[in-house]
Protein 1
Amino acid sequence: MPRKKETLTLSVPPGTKEQLEAIARRLNIFWGKSPSPSGLIAAIAQAKLEIGKSFTLAPDQVKALQQATKILYDSGQITEAQTLIGLLLERGNLEVSQRQALLQQASQLAEAWRIIVDQHRSNQQPFLLLYRDAQDQDLEYTVRYAEISFEEKRFYLNIWCEETEDIKDTDFPELIHNRCLRLDRIKAIVPTSGLWREEGLDFLKVYLHFKKGMIKAYELRNTDITSEVVVVGEETVRQVVRRVSNPFWLEREVLRYGGDCVVMSPESVRDRLKQKLLSLCHLYNIDTRS
């Protein structure tokens, strides 16, 4: 039997509700798809969130903890050193260069990144991640969810992160918190505080129609929601509804199947594929105006 909830009526100045929603969104406290001020207040009452003036480390405390971290590393106490680094990153009020130096120091861990990610995933432990992209830029992500996937002969780390500033323009704003990262470009991983995202990655629900030989040959994937043979007009197709967190891999799959696979919806994914096909036609001097 569901537990009854109490009702609390608050009188607040104009704009306070929006401010509470902004805080709830930042802390990943939602009711459905909307940030929840009620959930935020409940989390404060249950002492799950810190209130009042945030505790920060003074410069001399930061220096002392940095020295202690080095001693722990040198003595082989990696877990304890990692804990101190997490404290420094969270409470140290550090310059960007100091933060990146600490994250790079954490990369001295002997374990493979995949093992560390699997441990954090198993413990539902959020973490900070320092990543060097293909343009040799160092990017820092606050990861609230992570999973490993295998795509085209390589393992990738898929994350839901708080940061969005590194994405300047996107065709899929619904997926702006998702990132797909190469494991070999990770520079450091350090645990941090906060809540693990139970919902997993953001996703689009994509409808695919497989035709001809693919009607029987199609192999179900773990991201497929449904797969059924249906009749559309006078044509029989296999309709697959799939959770797609990264359209890049879907586009490569669909193009590989050629005319035997068509994206039916959403329009954002269809339009992206249309643009790719038009670009290919232009490269091969194919007139698409007729």
Protein 2
Amino acid sequence: MYIALAIIAAIAIYVVFIYNGLVTARQMKEEAWSGIDVQLKRRADLIPNLIETVKGYAAHERSTFEEVVAMRNRAQAVPAGDVEGRAQAEGLLSQALGKLFALAEAYPDLKANQGFLELQASLETIEGEIQMSRRYYNGSARDLNVKVESFPSNLVARNFGFTKAPFFEITNEADRAVPTVKF
């Protein structure tokens, strides 16, 4: 009888250990997503200033400005937990920003404008931080997914509602390219 109770207690302790590991992995994934969200918000906040700076030099390029604003609004409208939707919207925003920087190439005075150069440098810094945040998130998602799929933690995960986390990846090859600006 004592042996049976000891086995049951050992199994219960093991289940608690696995459950706590799953909770930790899920929280790491949520923290990582929050990091991506912060960087994307920083980029979205920078875009209106960038557009206003470029507008002063290229007022007749209205369609490019409207596209950037539309893609920014679309990216911000994606629901909080929709990783795939956010990745797609951010990819489209990156494409629109690439067009904006390509437009800047046609205006030598703009390329020499200190405000524009500072905004561009800030955007490049944020893009690098977004890449680091994406890698951290994907690593956290991978760790959670391994625990959700591995035996015996998959038994605990299934019974307590833990699911695989999607990776933050860009599916369109054209979206993968970071806008390059040459001055």
